[in-house]
Amino acid sequence: MMKYLIGAKTDIGIKRKTNQDALSVKIARCSNEEVAFAVLCDGMGGLECGEIASTTVINRMSEWFLKEYPEIIDKNNSWYLVRDNWDRLLKELNRKLVMYGENGNEKMGTTCVAVLIKNEEYLIANVGDSRAYLINNNIQQLTHDQSLIAREIAAGRMTAEAAKTDSRKNVLLQCIGANNSISPEYVKGKLQNSDIILLCSDGFVHEITDEEIARHLQNTALISKEKINDRLQDLINLNKERNEKDNISALAIKLI
User: How far from each other are the two terminal CA atoms of the chain, in whole angstroms?
Assistant: First the structure.
Protein backbone atom coordinates (compact mmCIF):
# COMPACT_ATOMS: atom_id res chain seq x y z
CA MET A 1 0.00 0.00 0.00
CA MET A 2 1.29 3.43 -0.95
CA LYS A 3 2.31 5.61 1.99
CA TYR A 4 3.57 9.16 2.28
CA LEU A 5 6.14 11.28 4.08
CA ILE A 6 4.92 14.84 4.36
CA GLY A 7 6.47 18.12 5.40
CA ALA A 8 5.05 21.65 5.36
CA LYS A 9 6.43 25.06 6.28
CA THR A 10 5.13 28.63 6.08
CA ASP A 11 6.92 31.85 7.03
CA ILE A 12 5.78 35.47 7.21
CA GLY A 13 9.04 36.59 5.61
CA ILE A 14 11.17 39.62 6.39
CA LYS A 15 8.79 42.47 5.52
CA ARG A 16 5.08 41.60 5.62
CA LYS A 17 3.03 42.28 8.75
CA THR A 18 0.73 39.32 8.14
CA ASN A 19 1.10 35.88 6.59
CA GLN A 20 -1.55 35.63 3.87
CA ASP A 21 -0.37 32.20 2.73
CA ALA A 22 -2.31 29.17 3.93
CA LEU A 23 -1.88 25.43 3.41
CA SER A 24 -3.35 22.11 4.40
CA VAL A 25 -2.34 18.46 3.96
CA LYS A 26 -4.63 15.54 4.72
CA ILE A 27 -4.29 11.77 4.48
CA ALA A 28 -7.35 9.52 4.45
CA ARG A 29 -7.79 5.76 4.38
CA CYS A 30 -10.24 4.92 1.62
CA SER A 31 -10.94 1.48 0.15
CA ASN A 32 -7.93 -0.04 1.95
CA GLU A 33 -5.53 2.54 0.59
CA GLU A 34 -4.11 5.87 1.67
CA VAL A 35 -5.06 8.93 -0.34
CA ALA A 36 -3.19 12.22 0.02
CA PHE A 37 -4.71 15.64 -0.53
CA ALA A 38 -2.92 18.96 -0.24
CA VAL A 39 -3.81 22.55 -1.05
CA LEU A 40 -1.78 25.76 -0.83
CA CYS A 41 -3.05 29.32 -1.29
CA ASP A 42 -1.37 32.72 -1.47
CA GLY A 43 -3.84 35.42 -0.50
CA MET A 44 -3.76 39.07 -1.48
CA GLY A 45 -5.67 42.16 -0.41
CA GLY A 46 -5.62 44.91 2.17
CA LEU A 47 -5.67 44.40 5.94
CA GLU A 48 -7.03 40.89 6.61
CA CYS A 49 -8.55 40.35 3.17
CA GLY A 50 -5.77 38.13 1.83
CA GLU A 51 -5.94 35.90 4.88
CA ILE A 52 -9.71 35.63 4.58
CA ALA A 53 -9.45 34.68 0.90
CA SER A 54 -6.75 32.03 1.30
CA THR A 55 -8.30 30.52 4.44
CA THR A 56 -11.76 30.38 2.85
CA VAL A 57 -10.44 28.36 -0.10
CA ILE A 58 -8.31 26.07 2.10
CA ASN A 59 -11.23 25.28 4.40
CA ARG A 60 -13.71 24.57 1.60
CA MET A 61 -11.31 22.38 -0.38
CA SER A 62 -10.40 20.44 2.76
CA GLU A 63 -14.08 19.99 3.57
CA TRP A 64 -14.60 18.58 0.07
CA PHE A 65 -11.87 15.98 0.62
CA LEU A 66 -13.27 14.84 3.95
CA LYS A 67 -16.99 14.88 3.14
CA GLU A 68 -17.55 14.68 -0.61
CA TYR A 69 -14.60 12.79 -2.05
CA PRO A 70 -15.42 9.52 -0.20
CA GLU A 71 -18.70 9.39 -2.15
CA ILE A 72 -16.94 9.22 -5.53
CA ILE A 73 -13.61 7.50 -4.79
CA ASP A 74 -14.75 4.03 -5.88
CA LYS A 75 -16.53 5.07 -9.07
CA ASN A 76 -14.98 4.06 -12.40
CA ASN A 77 -14.73 7.66 -13.56
CA SER A 78 -13.55 9.02 -10.21
CA TRP A 79 -10.74 11.17 -11.65
CA TYR A 80 -13.17 12.85 -14.05
CA LEU A 81 -15.54 13.44 -11.15
CA VAL A 82 -12.76 14.93 -9.01
CA ARG A 83 -11.89 17.39 -11.75
CA ASP A 84 -15.56 18.22 -12.25
CA ASN A 85 -16.01 18.72 -8.49
CA TRP A 86 -12.95 20.95 -8.26
CA ASP A 87 -14.04 23.04 -11.22
CA ARG A 88 -17.43 23.62 -9.63
CA LEU A 89 -15.90 24.34 -6.21
CA LEU A 90 -13.26 26.79 -7.43
CA LYS A 91 -15.79 28.72 -9.49
CA GLU A 92 -18.22 28.81 -6.54
CA LEU A 93 -15.41 30.09 -4.31
CA ASN A 94 -14.54 32.71 -6.90
CA ARG A 95 -18.12 34.01 -6.93
CA LYS A 96 -18.24 33.97 -3.13
CA LEU A 97 -15.03 35.97 -2.72
CA VAL A 98 -15.98 38.45 -5.45
CA MET A 99 -19.29 39.06 -3.69
CA TYR A 100 -17.63 39.28 -0.27
CA GLY A 101 -15.18 41.86 -1.59
CA GLU A 102 -17.89 43.91 -3.27
CA ASN A 103 -20.05 43.96 -0.14
CA GLY A 104 -17.12 45.13 1.97
CA ASN A 105 -15.75 47.43 -0.73
CA GLU A 106 -12.44 45.56 -0.51
CA LYS A 107 -10.48 43.87 -3.28
CA MET A 108 -9.33 40.40 -2.29
CA GLY A 109 -8.13 37.25 -3.94
CA THR A 110 -5.98 34.17 -3.65
CA THR A 111 -4.04 31.74 -5.76
CA CYS A 112 -4.72 28.04 -5.30
CA VAL A 113 -2.73 24.94 -6.14
CA ALA A 114 -4.12 21.57 -5.02
CA VAL A 115 -3.12 17.95 -5.53
CA LEU A 116 -4.84 14.61 -4.97
CA ILE A 117 -2.67 11.47 -4.99
CA LYS A 118 -4.17 7.97 -5.23
CA ASN A 119 -2.77 4.70 -6.57
CA GLU A 120 0.42 6.35 -7.87
CA GLU A 121 -1.63 8.83 -9.90
CA TYR A 122 -2.12 12.52 -9.24
CA LEU A 123 -4.41 15.34 -10.29
CA ILE A 124 -3.42 18.97 -9.80
CA ALA A 125 -5.60 22.08 -10.00
CA ASN A 126 -4.02 25.50 -10.37
CA VAL A 127 -5.25 29.09 -10.36
CA GLY A 128 -2.65 31.86 -10.23
CA ASP A 129 1.11 31.63 -9.81
CA SER A 130 1.61 29.23 -6.93
CA ARG A 131 3.36 26.15 -8.27
CA ALA A 132 3.47 22.36 -8.28
CA TYR A 133 6.73 20.53 -8.99
CA LEU A 134 7.62 16.88 -9.51
CA ILE A 135 11.02 16.00 -8.06
CA ASN A 136 12.88 12.72 -8.59
CA ASN A 137 16.25 12.55 -10.32
CA ASN A 138 15.23 15.82 -11.95
CA ILE A 139 12.85 18.67 -11.16
CA GLN A 140 9.88 19.52 -13.36
CA GLN A 141 7.42 22.37 -12.92
CA LEU A 142 4.02 20.77 -13.51
CA THR A 143 1.90 23.92 -13.48
CA HIS A 144 2.05 27.06 -15.61
CA ASP A 145 2.12 30.44 -13.88
CA GLN A 146 -1.07 32.27 -14.80
CA SER A 147 0.65 35.64 -14.73
CA LEU A 148 1.32 38.45 -17.17
CA ILE A 149 5.08 37.89 -16.99
CA ALA A 150 4.77 34.16 -17.74
CA ARG A 151 2.58 34.96 -20.74
CA GLU A 152 5.11 37.46 -22.08
CA ILE A 153 8.00 35.01 -21.64
CA ALA A 154 6.05 32.20 -23.35
CA ALA A 155 5.26 34.51 -26.27
CA GLY A 156 8.92 35.43 -26.66
CA ARG A 157 8.31 39.08 -25.84
CA MET A 158 10.40 39.02 -22.66
CA THR A 159 13.35 37.10 -21.25
CA ALA A 160 13.29 35.42 -17.85
CA GLU A 161 16.13 37.71 -16.78
CA ALA A 162 14.23 40.87 -17.76
CA ALA A 163 11.13 39.58 -15.96
CA LYS A 164 12.92 39.68 -12.59
CA THR A 165 12.95 43.49 -12.59
CA ASP A 166 9.80 44.20 -14.60
CA SER A 167 7.27 46.39 -12.77
CA ARG A 168 4.45 44.02 -13.80
CA LYS A 169 5.98 40.90 -12.26
CA ASN A 170 3.21 40.58 -9.65
CA VAL A 171 0.30 40.95 -12.09
CA LEU A 172 -1.86 37.80 -12.21
CA LEU A 173 -4.07 36.80 -15.13
CA GLN A 174 -6.03 34.37 -12.94
CA CYS A 175 -6.91 34.73 -9.27
CA ILE A 176 -9.79 33.42 -7.15
CA GLY A 177 -11.89 36.39 -6.04
CA ALA A 178 -10.49 39.12 -8.29
CA ASN A 179 -12.64 38.73 -11.42
CA ASN A 180 -16.04 37.34 -12.33
CA SER A 181 -14.62 34.27 -14.09
CA ILE A 182 -11.64 31.95 -13.71
CA SER A 183 -10.15 29.17 -15.83
CA PRO A 184 -8.38 26.64 -13.59
CA GLU A 185 -5.53 24.59 -15.06
CA TYR A 186 -5.55 20.81 -14.50
CA VAL A 187 -2.60 18.44 -14.74
CA LYS A 188 -2.84 14.64 -14.41
CA GLY A 189 0.03 12.19 -14.28
CA LYS A 190 1.63 9.11 -12.74
CA LEU A 191 4.12 8.79 -9.89
CA GLN A 192 6.73 6.25 -8.88
CA ASN A 193 8.10 5.24 -5.51
CA SER A 194 10.30 8.01 -4.00
CA ASP A 195 8.82 10.72 -6.23
CA ILE A 196 8.10 14.02 -4.50
CA ILE A 197 5.29 16.47 -5.21
CA LEU A 198 6.13 19.99 -4.05
CA LEU A 199 3.55 22.77 -3.76
CA CYS A 200 4.77 26.29 -3.07
CA SER A 201 3.83 29.96 -3.12
CA ASP A 202 5.68 32.35 -5.42
CA GLY A 203 7.67 33.70 -2.47
CA PHE A 204 9.37 30.30 -2.24
CA VAL A 205 10.81 30.51 -5.76
CA HIS A 206 11.64 34.18 -6.33
CA GLU A 207 15.19 34.04 -4.99
CA ILE A 208 16.21 30.41 -5.48
CA THR A 209 16.59 28.25 -8.56
CA ASP A 210 14.89 24.99 -9.47
CA GLU A 211 18.30 23.34 -9.22
CA GLU A 212 18.70 24.53 -5.63
CA ILE A 213 15.26 23.18 -4.76
CA ALA A 214 16.11 19.80 -6.29
CA ARG A 215 19.46 19.66 -4.52
CA HIS A 216 17.90 20.30 -1.11
CA LEU A 217 15.11 17.79 -1.69
CA GLN A 218 17.15 14.86 -2.94
CA ASN A 219 15.13 11.67 -2.62
CA THR A 220 17.69 9.75 -0.58
CA ALA A 221 17.95 12.49 2.03
CA LEU A 222 14.26 12.65 2.86
CA ILE A 223 13.89 9.69 5.17
CA SER A 224 11.48 11.27 7.66
CA LYS A 225 8.95 14.06 8.10
CA GLU A 226 11.52 15.90 10.19
CA LYS A 227 14.09 15.74 7.39
CA ILE A 228 11.60 17.13 4.89
CA ASN A 229 10.69 19.98 7.23
CA ASP A 230 14.37 20.75 7.84
CA ARG A 231 15.08 20.95 4.10
CA LEU A 232 12.04 23.14 3.45
CA GLN A 233 13.11 25.45 6.26
CA ASP A 234 16.63 25.62 4.79
CA LEU A 235 15.14 26.77 1.48
CA ILE A 236 12.93 29.33 3.21
CA ASN A 237 15.96 30.66 5.08
CA LEU A 238 17.90 30.88 1.82
CA ASN A 239 15.12 33.00 0.31
CA LYS A 240 15.14 35.31 3.32
CA GLU A 241 18.92 35.65 3.22
CA ARG A 242 18.52 36.81 -0.38
CA ASN A 243 16.01 39.46 0.71
CA GLU A 244 12.75 37.82 -0.38
CA LYS A 245 10.02 40.12 0.98
CA ASP A 246 6.93 38.01 0.35
CA ASN A 247 5.37 35.33 2.56
CA ILE A 248 7.09 31.99 1.88
CA SER A 249 5.31 28.62 1.99
CA ALA A 250 5.90 25.09 0.73
CA LEU A 251 4.76 21.53 1.32
CA ALA A 252 6.29 18.31 0.07
CA ILE A 253 4.75 14.85 -0.29
CA LYS A 254 7.09 11.91 -0.85
CA LEU A 255 5.78 8.51 -1.93
CA ILE A 256 7.27 5.58 -0.02
Answer: 9
